[in-house]
Design a protein that fits this description.
- Residues 261-270 have a biased composition (Acidic residues).
- This protein has helices spanning 8-12, 65-68, 94-105, 162-171, 179-193, 200-235, 243-269, and strands at 14-18, 30-39, 41-49, 57-64, 81-89, 110-118, 142-148, 173-174, 177-178.
- By secondary structure, it is of the alpha+beta class.
- The structure holds benzoic acid (BEZ).
- The site of benzoic acid has 8 residues, from loops.
Length: 270
């Protein structure tokens, strides 16, 4: 005979697990936010976010670990614990919040339930202490609702080359902002949960995006310098010189200047 240990109050409770933007953009009407983790999944940037159909950004989903193991992923390791936060929603607000979440998150995600393990503040230095009255008995797992983009949904992308993925994130923008901001916010939000809550997939993509940002900045600087050289050349070129010649002048400028200088040097010597 199984014994039901859930009190009527607990049965009414609604907890939501966030492992993506919900970590730093909480749902409305929550009265508790607890950092912690779920197991049995791997977090990956494998879900298209169809905000802008021309350039959909890429966002995270959870992949069942047993399924992920069968795939060839360039990021071939993943932490056992997928860190995130659980939100408790006041019972009288549950319908409202579910409706809000359906609008916000629907993009191919479906509803699943998973046990969530609260990180107890005593074992996780730096965390805000959790109100003991909201913790389940013996700090055991809490049943949470979670939105997952499963491999059978249209927006699921699957394994990708990390550099190509980082480039995609770098150039994408959706209705809720730049895709790169989503990635970097996620990295920051994860780091803030616990000293152990980092996710190497997220960190590696963030490092790649930062490297792309530096590369782009260098290219911008180079372009600006080239623009300045062009205007200097234009200022020193007679007005009736054709644009083609000006272009040629630009490309050959240094070589020509070099050869004239050489000629002058030779003339000076003799
Ligand atoms: C999350 O933060 O958990 C999440 C956000 C949007 C869609 C699915 C999950």
């Amino acid at each position: 005979m199984s014994v039901n240990t859930t009190t009527p109050a607990e049965a009414d409770e609604f907890w939501l697990f966030g492992y993506g933007s919900l970590i730093w953009k909480p749902p409305p009407h929550y009265d508790q936010r607890i950092p912690g983790w779920v197991t049995g999944y791997v977090r990956r940037f494998w879900q298209d976010h169809r905000g802008t159909p021309e350039a959909p950004g890429r966002v995270v989903t959870l992949i069942e670990r047993s399924y992920w193991r069968q795939l060839t992923d360039h990021h071939d390791s993943a932490p056992e614990r997928v860190w995130g936060v659980a939100y408790r929603i006041a019972p009288d607000r549950v319908d409202e919040v579910k409706e809000y979440l359906d609008i916000r998150e629907i993009n191919g995600y479906t509803i699943h339930y998973t046990p969530f393990h609260p990180a107890v503040s005593s074992s996780s230095p730096g965390l805000d202490p959790v109100d003991p009255s909201v913790m389940p008995p013996h700090h055991g797992p809490i049943r949470t609702l979670v939105y997952i983009g499963t491999p059978d949904n249209e927006q699921f992308v699957g394994p990708q080359d990390p550099q190509a993925l980082a480039e995609h994130i770098w150039r994408s923008e959706g209705p809720s902002g730049l895709n790169r901001d989503y990635l970097l916010e996620l990295e920051k939000a994860l780091d803030a949960l616990s000293p152990d809550s980092g996710d190497e997939h997220v960190t590696d993509l963030s490092n790649r995006v930062r490297a792309i940002a530096s590369r782009e900045e260098e290219q911008q600087k180079l372009k600006q310098n080239t623009g300045q050289t062009d205007s200097i050349l234009r200022a020193h070129t007679p007005v009736n010189v054709s644009p083609d010649l000006l272009q040629q002048h630009h490309h050959e400028g240094f070589r020509k200047a070099g050869s004239i200088d050489e000629q002058e040097e030779t003339e000076k010597k003799f």
